[in-house]
Amino acid sequence: MSNSHRNVRRGRLVVLAGPSGVGKSSVVRELLEMDPDLWFSVSVTTREQRPGERDGVDYRFVSPADFDSMIAKDELLEWAEIHRGTHRSGTPRAPIENRLADGRPALVEVDLQGARELRRSMPEAFLVFLCPPSWDALVERLVGRGTESPEIVERRLRTAKEELAAQDEFDAVVVNTDVKSAARELLTLVLDKSSDQLENHE
Predict the structure, then answer these.
(1) β-strand 76-82 against 13-17: which pairing, if any?
(2) Angle formed by the axes of helices 135-145 and 150-164, to 10°?
(3) Alpha carbons 88 and 25: distance in angstroms, whole number
(4) Fewer CB within 10 A of the end CB, N or C, for the chain?
(5) Is 25 annotated to bind ligand?
(6) Residue 181 marked as a ligand binder
(7) Measuring CA to CA, how many Å separate 88 from each of 65, 80, 194, 199?
(8) Which pTM value belongs to this model?
């Protein structure tokens, strides 16, 4: 490793988590429109691809066997079984390590278990919890999405209650009342800037 590389200040890792249906993907998409140069870690998952999702952009969709291989090769920074084993998701290690070593910020979106794992493996990570404006709003989003069966929706709601109870473990809480406002607040945290500095950044 060169001296110039060692002297680069390590980048900031921001970890975004929140209950299913809170709008994490929508906020991240808005965030990337605000700052196209921002780097977002694409998780790998064994779940089925939903309508409108793009492989390699929203997620990397892999088979259970490929996921097992990534675990065996220690290629995941964290991974977890989601919704009591319906599928698994994980965060590729190398792209994040390379990004942070270059002194650039990185954004990761995970579930609660993944956020806890990242906190243990990378204590310097800054954890952000995306919270719904109300419980009723979260229920409406999950039911109205229409992409899962009633049984899966009920399971997601049970998980959401557990996740909402853990938000005090996070360094910051962003309430997703409005996607643009939530994305702007998250951008200040990723770039580690105040709102005034962000005006200049834009």
Answers:
(1) unpaired
(2) 150
(3) 18
(4) N
(5) yes
(6) no
(7) 11, 6, 36, 39
(8) 0.81
| pLDDT (0 to 100) of residue 199 | 53
Q: Are 58 and 64 in contact (CB under 8 A)?
A: no
**Rounded-to-integer distance, Cα 13 and Cα 28, Å:** 15
User: For helices 24-34 and 179-190, what crossing angle results, to 10°?
Assistant: 70
For 67, the token pair is 């996921």
Please identify which residue in the block is written with the tokens 């939530």: 182
Question: Was 56 annotated as part of a binding site?
Answer: no
Q: Give the Å distances, CA to CA, from 22 to 2, 68, 118.
A: 43, 29, 21
95 annotated binding-site participant: no
Per the annotation, does 20 bind a ligand?
A: yes
| Cβ–Cβ < 8 Å for 127, 15 | yes
Residues of the chain with pLDDT under 70: 1-7, 83-84, 145-147, 193-202
- Binding site annotation covers 22? yes
- Cα torsion at 53, 15, 153, 33 (round to 10°)? -40
Residues in the chain: 202
Is 3.40.50.300 the CATH number for 13-191? yes
